[in-house]
Write a structure and sequence with these properties.
The chain is an alpha/beta fold. The chain folds into two domains: about 5-135, P-loop containing nucleotide triphosphate hydrolases (Rossmann fold, 3-Layer(aba) Sandwich); about 145-394, no CATH class. Helix content is about 45%, strand content about 20%. A hairpin with a 5-residue loop joins strand 9 (about 310-315) and strand 10 (about 320-330). The mean pLDDT is about 90.
């Protein structure tokens, strides 16, 4: 069992701040395993319901009556997006619990489509629910695996812990196929799965590039608005990340297009047919694949620190000044991060100019090493794991 850092966040929210938690994440990322682990240890007992099982769905034919009989227990409802009508019922039950002084720890809801689920629940559970995102296994959680293995295979548990690189790649290929055959028709029945796969593969080839919907549309033979809808679906399923540009007012000409990343590096490599670490290193996507891998780990670490909420963006001007990842807090840029795939990292002038533009005090270069050492103009070179730990603690 790999200990997931999000577990303590879920438990804290359920026991101290909110009656319900929605745990969001792509399929096979470990949500059900985590939920069962929390439920098994819940001091007042628990009930687990899977909305993909007909027997569990029948138990909720009269959902209001059934759920009220579970008073005092933690009720876990998996794949809740399959029964959106439950949210109105949960609202009434939660309000009655609150009136009776039972304010915390009643429902743990699991779902795979972030935006769709948040919209469904926000209409009924506003102010009654906390949203927590669970991503693939991070570098601080994969204690028995090397950084290169995690980068190559990605953070989905079945892929990372497979007995061989071949078995890991086979699992990821099956994972991609299952999304195209199952989830795309369920969440977007009018979107052709084959076109979604082609788009997904094109995004892997262009990992970390600025979004150019016109070029993608021309390659796919569809309209630019359709490309945006398809990307919206992949973002909603938490398979793709749109990293938006920093948008403050500096009187400079800023690039305004988002960057697009396939979120899990193992899925990037599967879409490109890369089996082993050496295959990845020899491919043109290697540098941007590592960049995406680092960005996902850092954003996940920042999200776990609920005491220091941060927004992630990137910074680029038309003159070439650029920062790969900017963390801002309360609207103010706080941390600048450059990502280098070399074991002997150096920093271009554009990074220093961008840091001066934003008056950055914390400046880091992440590289595939373990030592921390200073570079010029206040920049520190640091390994990914050390910076992830710093983000979680600061």
């Amino acid at each position: 069992m790999i200990t997931r850092q999000v577990e303590s966040v879920v438990i804290q929210r359920l026991t101290e701040t909110t009656p319900a938690v929605v745990l969001l994440g792509p399929r096979q990322v470990g949500k059900t395993t985590l939920a069962r682990r929390i439920a098994d240890q819940w001091p007042t007992g628990s009930v687990y319901l899977d909305m993909e099982r007909p027997a569990d769905r029948r138990r909720l034919d009269d959902a209001d009556t059934y759920l009220r009989t579970q008073t005092g227990k933690l009720v876990v409802i998996d794949e809740i997006h399959r029964m959106p009508g439950l949210f109105e019922i949960l609202r009434g039950i939660i309000d009655d619990y609150r009136a009776a002084g039972q304010r915390y720890g009643h429902f743990l809801l699991l779902g795979s489509a972030a935006l769709d689920l948040m919209q469904q629940s926000a209409e009924s559970l506003a102010g009654r629910v906390a949203y927590i995102e669970m991503g693939p296994i991070s570098i601080t959680e994969a204690v028995s695996e090397t950084e290169n293995t995690l980068w190559t295979r990605g953070g989905f548990p079945e892929s990372l812990l497979a007995s061989s690189d071949t078995n890991s790649l086979d699992w990821r290929i099956d994972f991609i196929r299952s999304y195209l055959e199952r989830d795309v028709p369920m969440f977007a029945p009018r979107m052709p799965a084959e076109t979604i796969k082609r788009l997904w593969t094109m995004l892997a080839h262009q990992q970390g590039s600025m979004l150019n919907q016109a070029r993608l549309a021309a390659s796919l033979g569809i309209s630019a608005p359709t490309v945006i809808r398809y990307i919206d679906l992949l973002v909603d399923l938490q398979l793709v990340r749109r990293l938006h540009p920093w948008s403050g007012n500096l009187g400079k000409r800023l690039v305004k297009s988002p960057k697009v990343y396939v979120r899990d590096s193992g899925i990037v490599h599967a879409l490109l047919g890369l089996r082993q670490w050496n295959d990845v290193l020899g491919h043109p996507v290697a540098g941007l694949s590592y960049e995406g891998f680092v960005i996902e780990n850092l954003i996940q670490a920042a999200a776990q620190n609920t005491q220091v909420p941060r927004l992630a963006t990137y910074y680029r001007t038309q003159d070439g000044a650029e920062i790969d990842l900017v963390f801002e807090r309360a609207g103010q840029p706080e941390m600048a991060i450059e990502i280098k795939g070399s074991s002997a990292p150096s920093v271009e002038r554009g990074f220093h100019i961008a840091c001066e533009d934003l008056e950055m005090k914390q400046r880091y270069v992440v590289y595939p090493g373990t030592e921390t050492f200073p570079l010029r103009e206040g920049v520190q070179a640091m390994g990914l794991k050390d910076l992830v730990v710093k983000l979680g603690e600061s």
